[in-house]
Design brief:
There is one protein chain. This protein is an alpha/beta fold. It folds into two domains: 234 residues, Rossmann fold (3-Layer(aba) Sandwich); 119 residues, Aspartate Aminotransferase, domain 1 (Alpha-Beta Complex), CATH 3.90.1150.140. Helix content is 29%, strand content 13%. The strands form two sheets. The chain has a seven-stranded mixed β-sheet with strand order 3-4-2-1-5-6-7. The chain has a three-stranded antiparallel β-sheet with strand order 8-10-9. A hairpin with a 6-residue loop joins strand 3 and strand 4. Helix 7 crosses helix 9. It is globular, with a radius of gyration of 21 Å.
């Protein structure tokens, strides 16, 4: 455990002088997973404050209270707990939900690579003076809370309205970066906002500083309420904080740890374990031999991970109701484990053994990869080591770039 309890940015903010916000209309972007050290949601803390006028809530993907699955529409409504109006930043009625398929996986792949329904209404913005954002990121570019922040900053760019970020720890540490850097702007989307690697090693506050410096010619009035006592090498379970699912399919720190690699299975016809109790920690398909894949992967002696055959039946998402033969990941050393490199080996092995069965949904896969070349290299059977080598120079450049935006040692 760390010597001092890590305190999220909301606590630093509430202990500061709030007179600067007196009389201002405030919009809050947050959800149930953002709390103080006593597990009280930021939504309630700010709404109950006599010094703040919270006039509207802005809801990210999954909704204020996390009940909507990935790909499910988050409607505009009034929040029963606070009585406040809720403006959705994941609204599939724009342009029209009738244009989206019923299948939740296809729906997600189509909706998440467009900008529609994810930006604040300009009329609503006119009635707001300050936006506060408090969302728990998971340290992976392919996570929509980063994009929600980026779109908000785009809307605020060049205005006199202020954005305040309540910062939170990167749960999988701020020490490691990996995976190719997104090719901006050609592959910018809701599942990959800017030129950062798959595992970026930054906090939301640090990313906001980077975005403000590199994207917007008219800067956002930005301030960060920093995390107290967090160090870059700390995993979430060493912060003294309680894990609250930041989204429905990340129920544990382990699932968040494997997510930077296993999320790529969303762009294939292999189940990533959605619809089970171990999302992203297991994978498989009805046509796959889990024992064979397990043996081949364990032969590779990948650092920090072992594999074991498993069986599962998803209750929603891919292969819903079907028996799947699969594999479970066991992390043996999380500081040695490379989720992205592991994913490349998993897909490479399956593609080699099942060339006619395994499919890559290229348009979506390319957007989460942040380029078009990765899917091509996988499809032509390139060596994993060669793929990993190809993006190292981009990672080195990003590592140098991010130094100027880091808030924590």
């Amino acid at each position: 455990m760390s010597e001092k309890r890590v305190k999220p940015g909301v606590e630093k903010f509430l202990s500061s002088d709030l007179s600067q916000l007196k009389g201002k209309k405030i919009a809050l972007v947050s959800n149930y997973s953002a709390t103080d050290s006593s597990l009280i949601p930021t939504i309630e803390l700010l709404n109950n404050s006599k010094d703040l006028d919270i006039s509207i809530l802005l809801s990210p993907e999954h909704g204020l209270w996390g009940k909507f699955q990935a790909g499910e529409n988050v409607p505009e409504q009034n929040d029963k707990r606070t009585g406040l109006p809720v403006l959705s930043l994941y609204d599939q009625s724009i342009p029209s939900s009738a244009d989206l398929p019923e299948d939740i996986d296809k729906r997600m792949r189509i909706f998440d690579i467009s900008d529609s329904g994810k930006k604040i209404n300009k009329i609503a913005l006119e009635n707001i003076d300050t936006i506060i954002l408090d969302l728990q990121d998971v340290g992976t570019r392919i996570y929509t809370y980063i994009s929600t922040m980026g779109y908000l900053m785009e809307s605020l760019s060049g205005t006199d309205k202020e954005l305040i970020i309540f910062d939170r720890p990167n749960p999988i540490t701020g020490k490691y970066i990996e995976g190719p850097v997104l090719e901006y702007p050609n592959y910018s989307s809701f599942v990959g906002f800017y030129s950062i690697p798959v595992r970026h090693g930054m906090t939301m506050g640090e990313l906001a500083l980077l975005f403000n410096s590199k994207i917007y010619s008219n800067k956002v009035r930005l301030s960060i309420a920093v995390v107290e006592n967090w160090e870059r090498n700390l995993w979430f379970d060493r912060t003294g904080s309680h894990w609250i699912n930041p989204s429905p399919n990340l129920p544990s720190l382990t699932s968040a740890t494997v997510y930077p690699g296993m999320v790529f299975l969303e762009g294939t016809n292999i189940s990533e374990g959605r619809g089970t109790t171990n999302p992203f920690e297991i994978f498989g398909a009805p046509w796959l031999d889990g024992m064979l894949i397990t043996e081949e992967l364990n032969k590779k002696n990948l650092k920090g991970v072992k594999f074991r055959e498993t069986f599962f039946r998803p209750y929603f998402s891919k292969y819903s109701g079907e028996d799947c033969s699969g594999i479970k990941l066991f992390i043996t050393d999380r500081d040695e484990y490379s989720p992205f490199d592991t994913m490349l080996n998993i897909i490479s092995v399956i593609k080699k053994i099942y060339p006619d069965n395994m499919m890559i949904h290229k348009e979506y896969f390319d957007m989460i990869a942040g380029n078009s070349w990765l899917s091509m290299e996988i499809n032509k059977g390139s060596e994993v080591s060669s793929i990993i080598s190809s993006y190292q120079s981009g990672l080195a450049e990003f590592s140098e770039l991010r130094r100027q935006f880091l808030l924590y040692e």
